[in-house]
Amino acid sequence: MKITSARVIVTCPGRNFVTLKIETDQGVHGIGDGTLNGRELSVVSYLEDHVIPCLIGMDPRRVEDIWQYLYRGAYWRRGPVTMRAIAAVDVALWDIKAKMAGMPLYQLLGGRSRDGIMVYGHANGADIDRTVAAVATYIDMGYKAIRAQSGVPGVEKAYGVSGGTLHYEPADADLPTVTGWDTRKALNHVPQLFARLRDTFGFDYHLLHDAHHRYTPQEAANLGKMLEPYQLFWLEDATPAENQEAFRLIRQHTVTPLAVGEIFNSIWDAKDLIQNQLIDYIRATIVGAGGLTHLRRIADLAGLYQIRTGCHGATDLSPVTLGTALHFDTWVPNFGIQEYMRHTEETDAVFPHDYHYKDGYLFCSEQPGHGVDIDEELAAKYPYQRAYLPVARLADGQLWNW
Ligand code: KDG
Ligand code: MG
Predict the structure, then answer these.
(1) How far is residue 314 CA from its own chain's centroid?
(2) CA–CA separation, 147 vs 252, rounded Å?
(3) Quick check: helix, strand or coil at residue 118?
(4) Is 90 a pocket residue for ligand 1 (Cβ < 6 Å)?
């Protein structure tokens, strides 16, 4: 069996997606996602100029060997561009393998560990009242877990707040939008938000919060401690994790569960965090962390320490990544939760799929493969549009972590 062609399809049905389609001499094709929000064309070049020429003629059944070829064989390891390109190939090859086997992908991973995938939605509002109303909307839709973000008085365009309740799309402009940040004001505000939420909805629902890398370890420890009475499911990205040791300080001061990893590319980004039990949930997902082949290694390492998975699932992770993550989530023994930010109707139409939401859970496809395809004719109607993530600046103009 041979790979006969591999093509990159860039489409923008409301936001940009980079998709790889691999075709074989047996008439079976596979689809993978390589989207890197705000830097999409770097992955297109990596795939078209450097990966695809090597793939043609290879045996697509050798998923592991091709992963090693692209990782070790490049000499240059890791990084968001390389690992997304590898993920796109890896997922397309798993898709082909599962189609050849006539099985949904989760069966090849080891079969079903659970019936449905508990997801969390992203509830947000310009102020606490509106965030409370947004959380109520999710509860009405059956969600068991909701991440709550609110505008912070005195902070312009706080992280996670958008016009719509169900959609949050941060890559919103042709050049980066400037947003604000003020840690003091956020530390005053976030505990008030969760006090109101618990007061209004009680303790039966899981509540989460994304700190989006804004706090120093000491500030994050302080926030975690202040949030303890509200029993969060997790506090996400409390501080940047390039220095994995930074989480030790947070851990020493709070029992609020910690989640990190949506920007991780490799098991090496998480190794010390996992082995020193500094986190509770690992957020790496398929497209960011080198595909299924690598993500399951991270999950297995985490499982040794009772650390559970919580795959990133923002809108920049295409339906191909979400659909594949659902197979991973259906199988992985140490599953925690899955993020689910809904795609627009236009995006769902470009990527036909049959995974579906019901009552707080997502259910993966039962079709052979991962169950997500691309409608190329429709995709061609939405050409690439440059779009950047925002940047964040403090009141004095200094650049901060967005
Ligand atoms: O591309 C950036 C987004 O994926 C990110 O800002 C969303 O933090 C995020 C999340 O948890 O969904
Ligand atoms: Mg996040």
Answers:
(1) 5
(2) 24
(3) strand
(4) no
| Per-residue model confidence as pLDDT tens digits over 104-143 | 999 999 999 999 999 999 999 999 999 999 999 999 999 9
Task: Identify whether the C-beta of residue 64 lies closer than 8 Å to the C-beta of residue 293.
Answer: yes
Give the residue ranges of DSSP H helices in 37-158. Answer: 40-45, 52-55, 63-71, 80-101, 105-109, 128-140
Residue 400 pairs in a beta bridge with: 392
Residue of 16, 18, 212 to mutate, ligand 1, most atoms within 8 A of C-beta: 212
In the chain, the percentage of residues whose pLDDT exceeds 90 is 97
Q: Answer yes or no: 312 catalytic.
A: no
Domains and CATH numbers, the chain: 3-104 (3.30.390.10), 109-369 (3.20.20.120)
Answer whether 373 contacts ligand 1 (Cβ < 6 A). Answer: no
Q: Which residues pair with 9 in a beta bridge?
A: 19
Q: Structure pTM?
A: 0.97
CB 374 within 8 A of CB 350: yes
- At 234-281, the pLDDT tens digits run 999 999 999 999 999 999 999 999 999 999 999 999 999 999 999 999
Query: Does 212 contact ligand 1 (Cβ within 6 A)?
Result: yes
Q: At what angle do helices 80-101 and 319-331 cross, to 10 degrees?
A: 70
pLDDT per position as a tens digit, 14-58: 999 999 999 999 999 999 999 999 999 999 999 999 999 999 999
What whole-number distance in Å separates Cα of residue 375 and Cα of residue 388?
Answer: 25
Rounded to whole angstroms, what are the CA distances from 81 to 9, 76, 299? 16, 11, 22
